[in-house]
Amino acid sequence: MRQIHPKVLCPKDIVATVSLSWGGAGELSLLWRYELGKRRLIEQFDLTVIEMDNTLKGAAFLREHPEKRAEDLMQAFLDPRVKAIFSCIGGDDSIRLLPYIDFAVIRNHPKIFMGYSDSTITHLMCYKAGVRSFYGPSILAEFAENNRIYDYTVEAVRKSLFSDQIIGPIYPADFWTGDYLDWSLENRFIDKKMQKNHGYDFLQGEGVATGHLFGGCMDVLEMAKDTTLWPSLEKLDQAILFLETSEEMPEPSMFASWLEDYGKRGILGRVSGMIFGKPYQDHFAQAYRSVISKIAAVYCDPKMPIVLNVSFGHNEPMCVLPYGALMEINSEKKTLDIMESGVRGEN
Q: Which CATH number fits domain 175-338: 1.10.760.10, 3.30.1070.10, 3.40.50.300, 3.50.30.60?
């Protein structure tokens, strides 16, 4: 699949933060957390961080003005100073930006975009424009984690955004947490409870499969189906479909309905593999596993690899998945590898 790769991030590069869905970063009760994430990007990654005009205008204003959120995104792509765009947080409202998006602006001014959850919509915009984007941490939900950013996440960000070398193996995190702590000043120095991770769960598969990465948060992808953002079946030929669920923890019956729709649309018969993120708090993990197994038996080649418990999405820490990048799934070695770089060099 042909894509434009954005340029590699370098020290002192300018990153713009955007609030494309929920405007929590600008709420007085959460501004401290935004500032913490911003400071970590400056101190730990040696970046220069700026806000767009509406980034911190708060939840009520941004809810009422999707056109202003879209304006921030377009201006961030157009601004020649800006080298990357990072989402502050997800939500459930990014789909309302669609009427205000100029896809030519994204294509003609390619740069890194990173976020997850409701940022899936913005990733689909970049995918439609032919520009690589990165399913990874957001300002409030990972860069501003209590006490520190997890090392696993830091390494993933560096390999994906700060190097033009092949990304290589995506290992499972040794430990994980879905622990919920209220985002209050009183809790900011409390470490979340970590649990040992049991590694990848290969549900099925034989040999080696390769394909370009496509997917996101299933809850949000449902909003994009049958819009102009949704790719044709042909564009999903031999893709590696990556899917995860949100902190809303959808019931297994809902999860089954969503996944079976991919089968009915012919998608599951075209992709070369699937990977699923660990569900939030590992809730419904076994029920989802059963659902995936039953639906795969109807719609998927039994040799096609399906891998569960991958470290992305609504648990921490998280890897970074570049849309459109070639992934290899080795069912014999039980490994996942990204076979190309996420970004291109400066020249």
A: 3.50.30.60
CB 221 within 8 A of CB 195: no
DSSP E strand stretches across the chain = 14-18, 48-51, 82-87, 112-115, 134-135, 168-169, 175-176, 195-196, 201-204, 208-217, 240-244, 273-277, 306-310, 321-322, 326-330, 335-338
**pLDDT tens-digit readout, 210-246:** 999 999 999 999 999 999 999 999 999 999 999 999 9
First to last CA, the chain: 22
| Chain segment 300-309, per-residue pLDDT in tens | 999 999 999 9
Whether 177 and 150 have beta carbons less than 8 Å apart is answered as: no
Pairing of strands 306-310, 321-322: unpaired
In the chain, domain spans: 14-166, 175-338
| pTM across the whole model | 0.98
